[in-house]
Design goal:
This is DUF632 domain-containing protein. There is one protein chain. This protein is mainly α and 125 residues long. The protein has one domain. It contains 3 helices and 2 strands. Strand 1 and strand 2 form a beta hairpin. Helix 1 runs antiparallel to helix 2. It starts with 6 loop residues before the first strand and ends with a helix. The N terminus is likely disordered.
Length: 125
């Protein structure tokens, strides 16, 4: 089953279940190396989602500009409606992508605060 948070811009991304599985495997050992590995994995996922979201924003901006030009030229209603519908769909996908990015960012912050800092402090002392 592919959830909406796993598909951005029509292409599947790394599934939440897979990331949780890898994280659970790494947690079994609970060492600094596994924590850094988890952070790296989540940061890679974050980068992937940010790139995808940025592509959608660029496309959205282009379509909005195209819509503006068509309005100024008095284009046919069905052409305007088609682009308006497309931009609304893009806007929804961008909103979902933002939520995914925020969720991943929170996960990274939690890992940093709850695992990395204590393990780093333990290593230093």
């Amino acid at each position: 089953v592919v959830s909406s948070s796993m598909i951005i811009c029509g292409r599947p991304s790394v599934g939440e279940e897979f990331l949780q599985f890898v994280e659970d495997k790494a947690t079994e050992h609970g060492n600094l190396s596994s924590t850094l590995q988890k952070l790296y994995m989540w940061e890679e996922k974050l980068l992937e989602e940010l790139k995808s979201e940025e592509k959608m924003r660029v496309l959205y901006d282009k379509k909005c500009e195209e819509l503006k030009v068509l309005y100024e030229r008095g284009a046919e209603a069905h052409k305007l409606e088609a682009i308006e519908t497309y931009t609304r769909k893009l806007s929804t996908k961008i909103s979902v992508a933002i939520q995914v990015v925020n969720t991943i960012s929170k996960k990274i912050n939690k890992l940093r605060d709850e695992e990395l800092w204590p393990q780093t402090n333990e290593l230093i002392q």
